């Protein structure tokens, strides 16, 4: 019984344990299921958040890309719109030009129609005159027949009265008629020649007037002073230098007079040679910009500026021939054309005068039906002899002709250059045109000034006279010719000789030159010792 009870108790206990174990396992499963659900919910929420974040990032990227594309599109559209507006403006301008040209063409056609009508009227008048002349000729023929008949009767009577044969009477009559015909022909020829002269004079005046009207040029006479503007008067002290050494070095290097006075923000550069004034002006500009102003630097800058001026002269010549449409000119002639910019003729700028003569020649040659390009070329080069680099005794027209021959110019151009002052005989129709246009350009009111040319010539002669003495390296006429500043070679001229040299030059000036007032002769001797450390 106890065994059964034990077994029963064991069974009951096992059953209870099984039940309790199952319940415990069920609770564990429920707890795990709940944790799994919570994890799944968390994962889903994180996934939704990540998806939302990714979505927002994509939307932002899309918006940025859209804005960028929109901006690029708007910029492109604006550029195209601007280009279209510009093209539209150009098209409108071109349309206006075409309309103006069309109006001009219509006006020309109207003028031609009027001329055609006038010619038609003249033709009708000529036809009527021809008919009248034919009638008069018939009348004259009839009268001639009557006169022949009367002449035959008179001849018969004369033969009876004078006892002359018909042949002898005919010869006598022919002689009388010949003398009368010669007298009438001479009178008729004289009238025709006078009428032709009058017509030719009118036509020539018309051509000259039309040429002058179609060429407008300013006439400004260059003076002997240039103004260098500065930002502050403090610069004047630097330009003068200690005890005036900088300004003396600048005047010695450039050959001009530097005037530093009370004029506000300006330094005056005085000199008769425009090349020297330009070199001094550009050198001052570079020195002031650099700030380092001392004698050695001044000489270096002046040397560089002089080289730059030579390059500028070539550029001016090239620009001039391009503006005038002249091709195939020798480089040396182009360089001489550029030198005209810094040369004056009786106070008139030589380059401006030559350009004007070239345009006048081209216009007049075109009016007369001649070669306008050749005439323009001759007009530009007609005074090329005035910029001959070396001093010569020949007239500038002959020098220019020799230059043109040297550089193989057209024979008509060569003759026009040499004959524009009647130095040689004219052999082409372009030569008188160049001579006339040169006179037209030079004779306009205010174009030239005789005193200026004689003044510059006197200053050049003054410099040449001083330069003829041995030991002189440089000489400059300054202060309007009232002072002659001379630089001598210290190795060949001593201090004692410098004093004697100034006296000799002053005595020679007194004997050989005519000048107003007095001329101060200053001889400068400067000793420099230079050595190099190697």
TrEMBL record:
Biased composition (Polar residues): 119-132
EC category name: hydrolase
SMART domains given in the database record: HDc (SM00471), KH (SM00322)
Cross-referenced SUPFAM superfamilies: Eukaryotic type KH-domain (KH-domain type I) (SSF54791), HD-domain/PDEase-like (SSF109604)
Source organism, top-level taxon: Bacteria
GO annotation terms (biological process): mRNA catabolic process
GO MF annotation list: hydrolase activity; RNA binding; RNA endonuclease activity
Cited Gene3D superfamilies: Hypothetical protein af1432, K Homology domain, type 1
Pfam family, one: RNase_Y_N
Domain HD: 350-443
Classification via InterPro entries: HD/PDEase_dom, HD_domain, HDIG_dom, KH_dom, KH_dom_type_1, KH_dom_type_1_sf, Ribonuclease_Y, RNase_Y_N
GO cellular component labels: plasma membrane
Keywords: Cell membrane, Endonuclease, Hydrolase, Membrane, Nuclease, RNA-binding, Transmembrane, Transmembrane helix
Annotated transmembrane regions: none
E.C. number: 3.1.-.-
Segments for region (Disordered): 93-146
Composition bias type Basic and acidic residues, residue spans: 133-146
Keyword Oxidoreductase: no
Its biological purpose: Endoribonuclease that initiates mRNA decay.
Family: Belongs to the RNase Y family.
Protein name, as recorded: Ribonuclease Y
């Amino acid at each position: 019984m106890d065994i059964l009870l034990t077994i029963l108790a064991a069974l009951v206990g096992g059953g209870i344990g099984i039940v309790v174990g199952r319940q415990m396992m069920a609770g564990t499963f429920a707890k795990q299921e709940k944790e799994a659900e919570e994890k799944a919910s968390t994962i889903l929420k994180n996934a939704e958040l990540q998806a939302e974040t990714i979505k927002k990032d994509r939307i932002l990227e899309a918006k940025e890309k859209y804005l960028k594309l929109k901006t690029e599109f708007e910029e492109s559209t604006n550029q195209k719109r601007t280009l279209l507006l510009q093209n539209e403006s150009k098209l409108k301008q071109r349309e206006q030009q075409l309309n103006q040209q069309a109006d001009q063409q219509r006006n020309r056609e109207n003028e031609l129609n009027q001329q055609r009508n006038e010619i038609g009227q003249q033709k009708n008048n000529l036809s009527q005159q021809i008919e009248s002349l034919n009638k008069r000729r018939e009348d004259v023929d009839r009268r001639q027949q009557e006169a022949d008949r009367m002449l035959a009767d008179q001849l018969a009577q004369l033969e009876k009265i004078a006892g002359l044969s018909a042949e002898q009477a005919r010869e006598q009559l022919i002689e009388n008629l010949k003398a009368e015909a010669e007298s009438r022909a001479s009178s008729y020829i004289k009238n025709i020649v006078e009428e032709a002269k009058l017509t030719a004079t009118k036509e020539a005046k018309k051509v000259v007037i039309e040429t002058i009207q179609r060429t407008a040029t300013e006439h400004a006479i260059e003076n002997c002073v240039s103004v260098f503007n500065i930002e502050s008067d403090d610069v004047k002290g630097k330009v003068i230098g200690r005890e005036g050494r900088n300004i003396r070095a600048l005047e010695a290097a450039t050959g001009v007079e530097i005037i530093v006075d009370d004029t506000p923000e300006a330094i005056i550069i005085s000199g008769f040679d425009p090349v020297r004034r330009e070199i001094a002006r550009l050198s001052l500009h570079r020195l002031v910009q650099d700030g380092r102003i001392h004698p050695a630097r001044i000489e270096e800058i002046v040397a560089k500026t002089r080289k730059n001026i030579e390059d500028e002269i070539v550029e001016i010549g090239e620009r001039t021939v391009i503006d005038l449409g002249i091709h195939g000119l020798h480089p040396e002639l182009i360089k001489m054309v550029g030198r005209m910019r810094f040369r004056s003729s009786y106070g008139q700028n030589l380059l401006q005068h030559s350009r004007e003569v070239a345009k006048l020649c081209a216009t007049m040659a075109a009016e007369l039906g001649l070669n306008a390009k050749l005439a323009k070329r001759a007009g530009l080069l007609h005074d090329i002899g005035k910029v001959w680099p070396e001093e010569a005794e020949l007239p500038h027209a002959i020098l220019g002709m020799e230059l043109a021959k040297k550089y193989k110019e057209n024979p008509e151009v060569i003759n026009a250059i040499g004959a524009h002052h009647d130095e040689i005989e004219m052999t082409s129709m372009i030569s008188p045109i160049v001579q006339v246009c040169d006179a037209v350009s030079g004779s306009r009111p205010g174009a030239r000034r005789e005193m200026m040319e004689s003044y510059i010539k006197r200053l050049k002669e003054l410099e040449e006279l001083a330069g003829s003495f041995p030991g002189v390296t440089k000489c400059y006429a300054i202060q309007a010719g009232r002072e002659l500043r001379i630089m001598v070679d210290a190795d060949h001229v001593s201090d004692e000789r410098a004093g004697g040299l100034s006296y000799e030059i002053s005595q020679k000036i007194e004997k050989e030159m005519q000048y107003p007032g007095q001329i101060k002769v200053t001889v400068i001797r400067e000793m420099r010792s230079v050595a190099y450390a190697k």
